[in-house]
Specification:
By secondary structure, the protein is an all-alpha fold. It has 22 helices and no strands. Helix 4 packs antiparallel against helix 5. The chain is globular. The N terminus is likely disordered.
Length: 585
C-alpha cells in the first residue's frame, strides 16, 4: 500500500505516477501552496484565490449578513516588531511632509510639476518595497525590495545633488534625502525581521528563484529528455539525421564505460521527474519546514545530477544538439540551488547584535557579515557628518566638495547592498569585490581631494566634524579594502574587472543625470562642472585598479546571419578588384 504523506511537515512519499505529479504541480502553481495533498493548505489557497467568496462564507458562519466589503480584502501580514512598524510609519510621514514642503515652496514654483512627479514615483516605490520586505522569504519579493531600496537611494542622492546646486534650499532637499534613506534602511530591517519571524535562525539556505520558476525549469529538463529519447512524436524528414538517437546511444555508452550504471536511471522520465519534484516539493512550502529540509538535503539529492553532467560533459562525438540541450536544462535547474544562500545576512541587519549568538547563528556572524555591520554603523555616522558639512548656503568649490561627499555616501549604500547579497563567509565573492571598488573610490578621494577635507568655511563651531569625517572615510576604506583577502583561486585580473564594471556602472548612471539636473537645479555652478569632477574621480579609481579605459554604454549586437557573413567575401572581392585590376582576358 502506498505511503500517505504527513500533512504536518509536507515531506511525504513521492512514489506517484507522472499524471499525479503533473496534477500536484498544477495545483501548487494555481493555489501557490506547498503540499497539494494537505486539505488545510488547499483551503487556504482557495481562500486567497477567491477572497470575496471566502469572506461571504465567514460572515455566513458567524450569522452575519454578507454585505459587500468596503475597503477591500484583508491579508495576513507576517509578524514584525512594534518598534519597526512605528518607525516605518514615522518615516513615511516624514517623506510626505518633506515632499509637501518642497512642492508648496513658492521658490520652487517653476519646478512644481517635476517635484510632484517625484512624489508620485516615490510613494509607489515605498509601497512596493515595504510590501515586498514583509514577504522576504519569497526570492522575488527580496529582489523587489532591493530594487525599491536602490531606487530610493537614487532619489535621495539626486535630491542632495539638486539641493547643493539650489541656493537657500539645500536644507529642504537634504531633509527629503534623510527621510528616503530612513525608509530604505527600514526596508532591510523589515526584511530581516520577516526572515527571523519565519524561524530560520542560523540557517543560510534561501532560494534564489520562486517555486513556480523551479517548476518551469523542471519541465524544460523533461522536455529535453523526451527530445533526446525521440518520444516527442516528431517524425524525421528524409534530409535530417537522427542526432538525438545518436546522442542517446553515445550517452548510454559513456555511462556504461564509466561504471556509473546507476545514472542510467536518470534517463527514465518518472525517475528524473520524481527527483526534481522532491526538491520542488520542499521549495514550494515557502515555510521554515520546507526550507530547512531543503537546505539539509539539497546537496546530497542533487549529487546524481552533478555526476551525470561530469560523466557525459563533452564526450559525445560528434556533438548532438539534443544532448547539449538536455545537459544545459539540468544545469539551469541546478543553478537555482547553487546560489541559493544570497540574502541570509538580512537576518543580522534586522536583529539586535545581542541576539546574534544562539538565536541567529550558532557561532555568531561570519567575517563578511562583520564587515557589513561595520559598514552600516559607519554609514550612519558619515551621513550625520555630511549633513553638517556646510552650515550655510555656500557656492563654488565648497558645493562641489559636498556633491562629491554625497556621492561617496550613495556608494556606501550600494556597498551595503552588495555585502548583504554576498554568499561567501570569507567575503571573497564577486559582490564583495564589487563593493571593494567603492573603497578604491574613497581612497582616491582622500588622496586627490585634499581641499575638501580641511574645515569647511561654514562648518558648525561645535565639535570637529571634519576630523570625524576623515576618520569615517578612513574607516570605510579599511573595511572595504583592508580586510578583503584576494582569493588564490582567481587570477588577479578577474577582481579588477569586477571592480571596473561596478565603477563604470556608476559613471554611466551619473552621465544620464545631466539633463534632469539642468532642469531642477539652475544653481550658482553648472551641474556639468560637478559631474565632471565626479568623472575625474572615477577615472582615477579605474587607473588605480589598472583598468584605465573609457566606460561605454552597452551595445547589444545580434550574431551575424549567413547572408551577412558571406558579405565579407563580397567586400574582399571588391577590394581585390580595386587594387589588383583583373586583365580583360
Amino acid at each position: 500500500m502506498q505511503d500517505m504523506p504527513d500533512p504536518t511537515n509536507g515531506l511525504g512519499s513521492l512514489d506517484r505516477t507522472p499524471t499525479a505529479v503533473k496534477v500536484d504541480n498544477m495545483i501548487r502553481q494555481k493555489l501557490r501552496i506547498g503540499d497539494p495533498r494537505d486539505p488545510a493548505a488547499i483551503a487556504d489557497g482557495l481562500r486567497r484565490m477567491f477572497p470575496k467568496d471566502a469572506r461571504a462564507q465567514d460572515l455566513e458562519a458567524l450569522g452575519l449578513p454578507t454585505l459587500p466589503q468596503r475597503f477591500g480584502t484583508t491579508t495576513t501580514r507576517p509578524a514584525e516588531s512594534m518598534a519597526t512598524s512605528a518607525e516605518l510609519d514615522q518615516a513615511n510621514a516624514d517623506v510626505e511632509r518633506d515632499l509637501r514642503a518642497l512642492t508648496t515652496d513658492h521658490r520652487l514654483k517653476d519646478v512644481e510639476i517635476e517635484l510632484q512627479g517625484w512624489g508620485q514615483a516615490i510613494r509607489g516605490i515605498i509601497a512596493d518595497g515595504t510590501s515586498a520586505a514583509r514577504l522576504a522569504l519569497d526570492p522575488r519579493a527580496r529582489d523587489r525590495m532591493f530594487g525599491a531600496r536602490r531606487q530610493l537611494g537614487d532619489y535621495a542622492r539626486l535630491s542632495r545633488f539638486v539641493g547643493a546646486l539650489t541656493p537657500t534650499l539645500s536644507v529642504s532637499y537634504r531633509k527629503l534625502s534623510q527621510s528616503l534613506d530612513e525608509v530604505a534602511s527600514l526596508m532591510m530591517v523589515l526584511a530581516g525581521e520577516s526572515l527571523a519571524g519565519s524561524g530560520l535562525g542560523g540557517g543560510r539556505f534561501l532560494l534564489s528563484v520562486p517555486a513556480s520558476e523551479l517548476q518551469a525549469r523542471r519541465d524544460a529538463v523533461l522536455l529535453a529528455l523526451r527530445t533526446l529519447q525521440g518520444t516527442t512524436e516528431q517524425a524525421f524528414g528524409n534530409d535530417q539525421w537522427p542526432w538525438s538517437l545518436h546522442g542517446l546511444r553515445e550517452v548510454l555508452r559513456q555511462l556504461e564505460d564509466s561504471g556509473h550504471l546507476d545514472l542510467r536511471a536518470l534517463l527514465d522520465e518518472p525517475v528524473l521527474g520524481r527527483l526534481m519534484d522532491e526538491m520542488i516539493e520542499r521549495a514550494g512550502q515557502q515555510s521554515t519546514i520546507g526550507l530547512r529540509a531543503l537546505g539539509a538535503t539539497a546537496e546530497i539529492t542533487l549529487q546524481r545530477l552533478y555526476r551525470l553532467l561530469f560523466v557525459i560533459d563533452n564526450r559525445v562525438q560528434p556533438p548532438a544538439p539534443a544532448v547539449t540541450t538536455f545537459l544545459k536544462a539540468i544545469q539551469l535547474f541546478l543553478d537555482a540551488f547553487r546560489s541559493s544562500r544570497s540574502g541570509y545576512r538580512l537576518l543580522y541587519v534586522g536583529r539586535a547584535p545581542i541576539s546574534f549568538y544562539g538565536l541567529i547563528g550558532i557561532g555568531g556572524p561570519d567575517a563578511a557579515t562583520q564587515r557589513l555591520l561595520d559598514l552600516v554603523m559607519r554609514r550612519g555616522r558619515l551621513a550625520e557628518l555630511l549633513d553638517c558639512y556646510l552650515g550655510c548656503e555656500c557656492c563654488g568649490d565648497e558645493v562641489t566638495c559636498q556633491i562629491l561627499l554625497d556621492k561617496l555616501l550613495y556608494d556606501v549604500d550600494r556597498a551595503i547592498d552588495l555585502y548583504t547579497l554576498g554568499i561567501r563567509p570569507a567575503g571573497d565573492g564577486e559582490p564583495e569585490w564589487r563593493a571593494a571598488a567603492y573603497g578604491v573610490l574613497i581612497q582616491q578621494f582622500v588622496q586627490t581631494q585634499n581641499a575638501c577635507l580641511p574645515e569647511a568655511p561654514c562648518a558648525p563651531a561645535l565639535g570637529d566634524p571634519v576630523t570625524g569625517l576623515s576618520a569615517q572615510l578612513a574607516g570605510l576604506q579599511n573595511t572595504l579594502l583592508g580586510s578583503n583577502p584576494i582569493p588564490p583561486a582567481l587570477p588577479p585580473a578577474q577582481q579588477s574587472i569586477w571592480m571596473r564594471d561596478e565603477l563604470c556602472l556608476q559613471q554611466l548612471s551619473d552621465a544620464r543625470l545631466e539633463s534632469i539636473l539642468a532642469t531642477l537645479a539652475p544653481g550658482c555652478i553648472p551641474a556639468q562642472t560637478a559631474l565632471q569632477r565626479i568623472s575625474v574621480l572615477v577615472d582615477a579609481a579605474l587607473t588605480a585598479i589598472h583598468q584605465p579605459h573609457p566606460c561605454s554604454e552597452p551595445d547589444i549586437e545580434p550574431p551575424p546571419t549567413t547572408e551577412s557573413s558571406l558579405r565579407i567575401f563580397y567586400r574582399a572581392d571588391q577590394a581585390i578588384d580595386r587594387y589588383l585590376p583583373r586583365s580583360a582576358g
